[in-house]
């Protein structure tokens, strides 16, 4: 199958490459060629790009997709309270089918707002994998591991089962990681076990880190170190590629410890803002050469999964925090939501930029809107003015998932019918 995108404004997100108007030639799942005079006269389908900007799809580097069922269920609470009193009891009521439909709800929202790939940490991951397979998105899936009570190894065997059954599945769109949930839910022994397994299988690790001040106090009281030192002393950063979600409360010494690590930080500015967690030291981490990508966290905390809003919040928070509007420019913030996130998921050789040879994971943004005209600087418009509802077309692995804002792989009427009744049952009595 050969697809041509004609005469769009192309923003490749390759460093140093300026936006230009041109064509994109896609064959099956990959971009073959893109440029001003690429011949698309002999393709099977032509997509008109005039009036649209073509860019790589966003990569949401930290998510709990079924939590979309818990959107706006319990807001304005402290994180630990919110987790213990609201989220965990609701999650205990979720059936495998709830997980399937909840993650499909998240995928509908992600596609509608221009996300093509996401990293997900949750429970019953086989259901999420089935939903990813059917919807057509790309995802890196992780079974979240909380080791506070002995479960006879059940959670770890579920994590291993996910890796064995689903790594490389769905035409290679699904990859997997190992997910010890956080320093405060993972004592040293089981944590070491997860690191050894990740190292033996060459798998990345996905873990929450230093999200709240309470976490820092808890870990200091228990182990006498910061959460980052706790992971470093156990050897995590020497032995695996690590995706650190949040990393809000880092000392200077912590940042030095992360320097040179494989992987980096998934910054979740909207979740951090809403839960009052603090402002992550993103600019300082970038200065130290640490990769920083972007995520939303689950809709249970972030409320929405729109990566345009996330890019904007990330840039504005750093400008405010440092009192310096130059600290995180629009182009870098956009890059954090695309290529930098791809690096965290170990997928930067395949996605994150528009390049010949890479997978055809891209979006078309409709520029024929008052807030997106005139086009003095496309990166500024995308970072500071665009929102998810401006996305017209979404393609993953060369397959259209949305065109003209119509979802092509999800039956939305059925989806909303399913989630309404399921959400009501899940939260009853909580
Ligand atoms: C065991 S699967 C993942 C687990 O994480 C919980 N969760 C959701 N948001 C957050 C957050 O911001 N910090 C820590 N943990 C979070 C989710 O409810 C699942 O239980
Ligand atoms: Zn999270």
Q: How would you describe this structure to a colleague?
A:
The protein has helices at residues 79-92, 96-112, 125-135, 154-166, 188-201, 213-223, 227-234, 236-239, 252-258, 269-274, 282-287, 299-302, 307-322, 330-344, 378-384, 412-427; strands at residues 2-10, 20-27, 30-35, 45-48, 52-56, 58-63, 115-122, 138-145, 174-180, 205-209, 242-246, 263-267, 291-294, 362-366, 391-396, 399-403, 406-407. The protein has 430 residues and is an alpha/beta fold. It has 2 domains: 2-56 and 350-407, Urease, subunit C, domain 1 (Roll), CATH 2.30.40.10; 58-344, Alpha-Beta Barrel (TIM Barrel), CATH 3.20.20.140. The longest helix is centred in the first third of the chain and has 17 residues, at 96-112. The radius of gyration is 21 Å and the shape is globular. The model has no long low-confidence stretch (mean pLDDT 98).
């Amino acid at each position: 199958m050969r697809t041509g995108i004609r005469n769009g404004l192309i923003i490749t997100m390759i460093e140093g490459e300026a936006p230009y108007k041109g064509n994109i030639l896609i064959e099956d799942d990959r971009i073959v060629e893109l440029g001003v005079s690429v011949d698309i006269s002999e393709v099977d389908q032509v997509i008109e790009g005039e009036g649209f900007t073509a860019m790589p799809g966003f990569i949401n580097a930290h998510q709990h997709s079924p939590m979309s069922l818990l959107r706006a269920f319990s807001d304005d609470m402290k994180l630990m309270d919110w987790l213990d009193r609201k989220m965990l009891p609701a999650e205990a009521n979720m059936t495998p089918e709830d997980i399937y439909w909840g993650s499909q709800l998240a995928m509908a929202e992600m596609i509608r707002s221009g996300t093509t790939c996401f990293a997900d940490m949750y429970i019953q991951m086989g259901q999420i994998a089935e939903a990813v397979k059917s919807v057509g998105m790309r995802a890196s899936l992780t079974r979240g591991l909380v080791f506070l009570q002995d479960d006879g190894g059940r959670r770890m065997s579920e994590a291993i089962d996910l890796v064995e059954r689903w790594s490389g599945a769905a035409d290679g769109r699904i990859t997997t990681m190992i997910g010890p949930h956080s320093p405060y839910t993972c004592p040293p022994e089981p944590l070491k076990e997860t690191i050894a397994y990740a190292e033996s299988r060459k798998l990345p690790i996905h873990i929450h880190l230093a999200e709240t001040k309470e976490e820092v106090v808890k870990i200091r009281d228990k182990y006498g170190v910061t959460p980052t030192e706790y992971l470093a002393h156990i050897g995590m950063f020497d032995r695996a590629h690590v995706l650190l979600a949040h990393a809000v409360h880092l000392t200077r010494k912590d940042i030095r410890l992360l320097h040179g690590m494989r992987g980096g930080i998934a910054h979740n500015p909207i979740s951090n803002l809403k839960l009052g967690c603090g402002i992550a030291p993103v600019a300082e981490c970038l200065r130290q050469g640490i990769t920083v990508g972007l995520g939303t966290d689950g809709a249970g905390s972030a409320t929405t999964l729109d990566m345009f809003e996330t890019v904007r919040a990330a840039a504005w928070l750093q400008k405010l925090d440092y009192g310096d509007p130059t600290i995180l420019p629009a182009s870098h913030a956009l890059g954090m939501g695309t290529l930098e996130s791809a690096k965290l998921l170990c997928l930067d050789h395949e996605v994150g930029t528009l390049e010949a040879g890479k997978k055809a994971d891209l979006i078309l943004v409709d520029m024929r809107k008052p807030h997106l005209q005139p086009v003095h600087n496309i990166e500024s418009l995308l970072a500071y003015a665009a929102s998810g509802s401006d996305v017209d077309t979404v393609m993953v692995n060369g397959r259209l998932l949305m065109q003209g804002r119509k979802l092509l792989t999800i039956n939305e009427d059925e989806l909303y019918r399913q989630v309404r009744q399921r959400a009501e049952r899940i939260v009853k009595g909580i």
